[in-house]
Amino acid sequence: MTSGVLEPKLVSLLWAGPDRSGEIADMHALLFPDAWDVASIAKILENPAATSFVAQIGTPKITVGFIIGQIAADEAEILSIGVAPELQRRGVGRMLVEGFVRAAQRAECGCVHLEVGADNDAAFALYRGLGFVEARRRKGYYQRPNGESVDALVLKLDI
Question: Does the residue 106 lie in any domain?
Fold first, then answer.
């Protein structure tokens, strides 16, 4: 695929319930060394507070991204987000986060929280571009496969 942003009309965002756990788990395993399994994802998606989407493109539709979050009371939290490697930096992640933020706004949340590794420059740039700011830092929170400790940045978006 060529670089650049995908046209929004080419990407469909669909609510993700427990029936999507398998495809989300497959993508999670592709993207993260400490991937969540199908049962863990299904348990999150079964929770009434779960607010999650998959991004799909093509005919037939194939899943190219996901966002898993929860909305409770007046706050929302993004727990995990991922985009197929070949479509990263093409706007799919932005569409997923914007979709989640819209859901949080409809639920009358005051803010959205998420956490990202301080070494994940691409994700941090996406979140910063959407208006998220650093609320706090957890020193040495993540352990990378090479044994390196990385801070977790807790980000917040007031909506």
Answer: yes
At residue 114, φ and ψ (nearest 5 deg) are: -160, 170
Q: Concatenated DSSP letters for 30-80?
A: HH-TTPPPHHHHHHHHHSTTEEEEEEEETTTTEEEEEEEEEEETTEEEEEE
Tens of pLDDT along 90-108? 999 999 999 999 999 999 9
105 in a structural domain: yes
Please tell me the total count of domains within the chain: 1
What CATH number corresponds to the domain at position 33? 3.40.630.30
Confidence of residue 8 (pLDDT cuts 50, 70, 90): low
Give the pairing of strands 111-117 and 75-83. Answer: parallel
Specify which residues 152 forms β-bridges with. Answer: 117, 138
Q: Which of the residues are catalytic?
A: 115, 127
Domain containing 56: what range?
8-158
Q: What's the pLDDT at 10?
A: 87
Q: State the pLDDT at residue 1.
A: 43
SS3 147: coil
